């Protein structure tokens, strides 16, 4: 897929925001047509089908954009010691996963640890 230049995306976002702030959808034919054109161009430039997705995709491609971290676990970079962040995550028994992987062709029951051969 072709990727639009970040400067083009930034300009399109600014145009879209200005047109919506001026309620172009309720304005004269020229304003409505310009809003439709910018909306269509943003969708094509980002490979999306609706303006909300297009705006998210365009903003993600701008310089300095970072994915939103919605993790509930504090990171050590946020000033939390590594031990404290590790303690915040509940322990998951690894043995159940290891039993399943070791069996290969069988099936491990997570609750009992019994191994049933595959049919």
Word description of this protein:
It holds the Pfam family DUF5133. This is DUF5133 domain-containing protein. The structure is a single chain. The protein is mainly α and 119 residues long. The chain has a domain at 6-60. The protein is 50% helix and 5% strand. It is built from 5 helices and 2 strands. The protein has helices spanning 6-21, 29-46, 51-60, 82-88, 95-103; strands at 106-108, 115-117. A two-stranded antiparallel sheet has the order 1-2. Strand 1 and strand 2 form a beta hairpin. Helix 1 (6-21) packs antiparallel against helix 2 and helix 2 crosses helix 3. The longest helix has 18 residues, at 29-46. It starts with 5 loop residues before the first helix and ends with a strand.
- Please count the helical segments: 5
| Helix percentage | 40-55%
- General shape: globular
Radius of gyration: 25 Å
Structural class: mainly alpha
Main sheet specs = 2 strands, antiparallel
Q: Which parts are unreliable, with pLDDT below 50 for 5 consecutive residues or more?
A: 92-114
Q: In whole angstroms, how far apart are the ends? A: 45 Å
Strand content: 5-15%
Region (Disordered): 62-85
InterPro entries: DUF5133
Protein name: DUF5133 domain-containing protein
Pfam family, one: DUF5133
């Amino acid at each position: 897929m072709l990727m639009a230049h970040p400067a083009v995306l930034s300009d399109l976002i600014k145009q879209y925001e200005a047109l919506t702030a001026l309620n172009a959808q309720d304005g004269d034919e020229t304003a409505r047509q310009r809003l439709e054109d910018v909306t269509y161009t943003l969708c094509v430039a980002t490979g999306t089908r609706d303006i909300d997705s297009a705006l998210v995709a365009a903003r993600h491609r701008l310089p300095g954009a970072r994915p939103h971290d919605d993790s509930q676990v504090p990171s050590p970079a946020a000033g939390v010691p590594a031990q404290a962040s590790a303690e915040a995550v509940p322990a998951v028994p690894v043995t159940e996963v290891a039993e399943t992987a070791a069996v290969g062709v069988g099936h491990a029951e997570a609750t009992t640890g019994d191994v049933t051969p595959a049919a």
